[in-house]
């Protein structure tokens, strides 16, 4: 176990150093192909897009922090047949299968509190988990296949896909016994009428959001937090006046 953790730490350090070098103009923006090795000596190829701006690299680093904090499944060491995770700044949906016949999964809702006096945001990630039924998990998997999401490149590798500072970005992770890919997509709904890839991603995430009623569940999560103002993605916030004190830390 120690060997596995040490090697994965080295992978993270490589990603961060690679991004720093590109920002300095020392390396061109390329798709980095990394390799994670588990304690059994099996090789797993890992693809994370790294570019001069570091946008996707930043998303990847934040997602790694969420995985650790919320004890999500780690795709770098995941060895079953299928793991899919779709995330934005408010929720993650995780679907797994050992045989591509039976599916299960978990939903995660999370936020950080905004300090009322205009100070920095709260550092503590507040979150709640919610199990998925087999039928829900299967529906997400079928939507993933229907829109051929696995074959869609990350936004940076799609000609004409703009980047923006505000708006919603979706992260899609897909892992199997020997591969792991991490991709990001900024505002697919804004690009859907110009790019067929954006239309497919937008249709996929909208179908997932609708089938799982994620907006309703996220609002219910916020309303159970202590009174305060909380992040809801981008520059948006939500103020909760509830007196309830149900948080998970």
Topology:
Elements: H1 2-23, E1 31-37, E2 43-49, H2 55-69, E3 82-87, E4 91-97, E5 104-111, E6 113-114, E7 126-132, H3 134-146, E8 169-175, E9 179-186, H4 188-191, H5 196-212, H6 214-223, E10 228-233, E11 236-240
Parallel strand pairs: 2-9
Antiparallel strand pairs: 1-2, 3-4, 3-8, 4-5, 5-7, 6-10, 8-9, 10-11
Structure overview:
By secondary structure, this protein is of the alpha+beta class. It has one domain. The chain has 6 helices and 11 strands. The protein has an 8-stranded mixed β-sheet, sandwiched between helices. A 3-stranded antiparallel β-sheet has the order 6-10-11, with no helix packed on it. Helix 3 runs antiparallel to helix 5 (196-212). The longest helix has 22 residues, at 2-23.
Order of helices and strands: HEEHEEEEEHEEHHHEE
Which shape, going by the Cα principal axes?
Answer: globular
Largest β sheet strand count, sense and barrel closure: 8 strands, mixed
Residue runs with pLDDT of under 50 for 5 or more positions: 1-10, 21-33, 245-249
In whole angstroms, the N-to-C terminal distance is 26 Å
Which short descriptors sum up this protein?
249 residues; alpha+beta; eight-stranded mixed sheet; 28% strand; disordered N terminus; disordered C terminus
Summarize the structure.
With 249 residues, this protein is an alpha+beta fold.
């Amino acid at each position: 176990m120690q060997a596995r953790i040490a090697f994965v730490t080295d992978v993270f350090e490589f990603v961060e150093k690679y991004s720093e070098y590109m920002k300095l103009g020392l390396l061109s923006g390329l798709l980095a192909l990394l390799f994670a090795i588990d304690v059994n000596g099996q090789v797993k190829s890992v693809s994370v897009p790294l570019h001069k701006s570091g946008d996707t690299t930043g998303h990847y680093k934040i997602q790694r922090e969420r995985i650790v904090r919320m004890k999500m499944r780690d795709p770098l060491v995941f060895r079953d047949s299928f793991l899919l995770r779709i995330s934005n700044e408010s929720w993650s949906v995780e679907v797994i299968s050992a045989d591509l016949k039976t599916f299960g999964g978990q939903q995660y809702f999370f936020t950080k509190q905004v300090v009322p006096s205009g100070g920095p945001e709260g550092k503590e990630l507040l979150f709640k988990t919610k199990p998925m039924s087999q039928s829900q998990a299967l529906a997400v998997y079928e939507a993933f296949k229907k829109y051929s999401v696995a074959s869609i490149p990350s936004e940076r590798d799609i000609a004409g896909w703009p980047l923006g500072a505000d708006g919603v970005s979706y992260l899609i992770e897909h892992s199997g016994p020997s591969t792991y890919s991490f991709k990001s997509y900024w505002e697919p709904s804004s690009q859907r009428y110009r790019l067929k890839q954006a239309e497919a991603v937008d249709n996929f995430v909208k179908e997932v959001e609708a089938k799982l009623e994620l907006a309703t569940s996220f609002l219910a999560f916020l309303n159970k937090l202590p009174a305060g103002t909380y992040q809801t993605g981008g520059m948006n916030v939500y103020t909760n006046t509830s007196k309830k004190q149900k948080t998970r830390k």
